[in-house]
From TrEMBL:
<keyword id="KW-0479">Metal-binding</keyword>
<dbReference type="GO" id="GO:0022904">
    <property type="term" value="P:respiratory electron transport chain"/>
</dbReference>
<dbReference type="InterPro" id="IPR050573">
    <property type="entry name" value="SDH/FRD_Iron-Sulfur"/>
</dbReference>
<dbReference type="InterPro" id="IPR012675">
    <property type="entry name" value="Beta-grasp_dom_sf"/>
</dbReference>
<keyword id="KW-0003">3Fe-4S</keyword>
<dbReference type="InterPro" id="IPR009051">
    <property type="entry name" value="Helical_ferredxn"/>
</dbReference>
<comment type="similarity">
    <text>Belongs to the succinate dehydrogenase/fumarate reductase iron-sulfur protein family.</text>
</comment>
<protein>
    <recommendedName>
        <fullName>succinate dehydrogenase</fullName>
        <ecNumber>1.3.5.1</ecNumber>
    </recommendedName>
</protein>
<feature type="domain" description="4Fe-4S ferredoxin-type">
    <location>
        <begin position="156"/>
        <end position="188"/>
    </location>
</feature>
<dbReference type="GO" id="GO:0009055">
    <property type="term" value="F:electron transfer activity"/>
</dbReference>
<dbReference type="GO" id="GO:0051539">
    <property type="term" value="F:4 iron, 4 sulfur cluster binding"/>
</dbReference>
<dbReference type="GO" id="GO:0046872">
    <property type="term" value="F:metal ion binding"/>
</dbReference>
<dbReference type="InterPro" id="IPR017896">
    <property type="entry name" value="4Fe4S_Fe-S-bd"/>
</dbReference>
<keyword id="KW-0001">2Fe-2S</keyword>
<dbReference type="GO" id="GO:0006099">
    <property type="term" value="P:tricarboxylic acid cycle"/>
</dbReference>
<dbReference type="InterPro" id="IPR017900">
    <property type="entry name" value="4Fe4S_Fe_S_CS"/>
</dbReference>
<dbReference type="InterPro" id="IPR025192">
    <property type="entry name" value="Succ_DH/fum_Rdtase_N"/>
</dbReference>
Length: 284
């Protein structure tokens, strides 16, 4: 139990933080307990900074600082995702006072389980970005000349597109998805960087692409310039690891920190791929 601060009613003196650590890719994980002095309005990143500064476990053992990933500290970059008290979320916006209402005894920090661990709480989200590449989640406007103003976007389309454009590639939807299973390849002896990357890309392309990439395909297919790649995006979604792998469990939509209507995107993508398949059949 957390000891209560005798000077402040119902306020703990210490926060027990249990961290799942792993020293390197492929190594056995282990748990470590840290004790941090309570202060109001801490977030999980501050707790990790305190753990790094102390670098000592609750039983006085000197340890290496815990590694984690973060960038913006305002729920925009998507890099600080971890499993906190059993739920995937952003550590920068996870407030300790709120978490202690969920579990007053301890704060439990784990890396996402669907991506290979690089070290401690830091994971390799390469597969997530490969998924965005696979569905060409961009507007193709690169050029060396001024192409003038883009096409106007109808208000209706703006309203549909804006929520989808807030995706920060955090991976929460992928962590929660039962169909998105971990792909972790081990480098073979003597394998070159290029050969390993090629093997990794192939494995990532064959595995389920996930809700975020499906939703981004819907976003860019509804953009006046992005539409030019619509067929290629739908082809990607109809191929291996595409939309057919979605089991419609709807876990993704319930954990998205940006409240993106992912299941609506999945339904739209499903309809578009069916129409695309019929059109292709008639074009034969
Ligand atoms: S609806 Fe599809 S993408 Fe979302 S959690 Fe379920 S299986 Fe995964
Ligand atoms: S769809 Fe939501 S949960 Fe998934 S990566 Fe984007 S912001 Fe994160
Ligand atoms: S640090 Fe950028 S989303 Fe948390």
């Amino acid at each position: 139990m957390i000891a209560l601060d005798p000077n402040v009613k119902n306020r703990p003196e210490w926060i027990n933080v249990r961290v799942r650590r792993q020293d390197a890719p492929g190594q056995e994980p282990y748990w470590e307990l840290h004790k941090i002095a309570y202060e109001p309005e801490l977030n999980v990143i501050t707790i990790l900074q305190r753990i790094a500064a102390q670098a000592t476990t609750s039983d006085g053992k000197k340890v290496n600082p815990v590694t984690w990933d973060c960038g913006c500290l305002e729920e925009v970059c998507g890099s600080c995702t971890m499993v906190i008290n059993g739920k995937v979320r952003q550590s920068c916006s996870a407030l300790v006072d709120t978490l202690m209402k969920e579990d007053p005894d301890e704060l439990v920090l784990e890396p996402m389980s669907k991506f290979p661990v690089i070290r401690d709480l830091m994971v390799d989200r390469k597969r997530l970005f490969r998924g965005l590449q696979k569905v060409k989640a961009w507007v193709p406007v690169d050029s060396y000349y001024n192409m003038g103003a883009g096409e106007r976007i109808l208000m209706d389309d703006q309203e549909q597109n804006y929520p989808l454009s807030q995706c920060m590639s955090c991976g929460c939807c992928l962590e929660a998805c039962p169909q998105y299973t971990k792909v972790e390849l081990v480098r073979e002896e003597g394998e070159s960087d290029e050969a390993f990357e090629e093997r990794q890309n192939k494995a990532h392309d064959e595995a389920f692409v996930g809700a975020n990439a499906i939703s981004q395909a819907v976003l860019f297919n509804n953009h006046p310039t992005g539409k030019s790649l619509a067929g290629e995006r739908l082809d990607a979604l109809m191929g291996p690891g595409g939309i057919a792998a979605c089991g419609n469990a709807q876990n993704c939509v319930s954990v998205c920190p940006k409240e993106i209507p992912l299941t609506t995107s999945i339904a739209k993508a499903g309809r578009s791929t069916t129409i695309h398949a019929i059109k292709k059949w008639f074009e034969k």
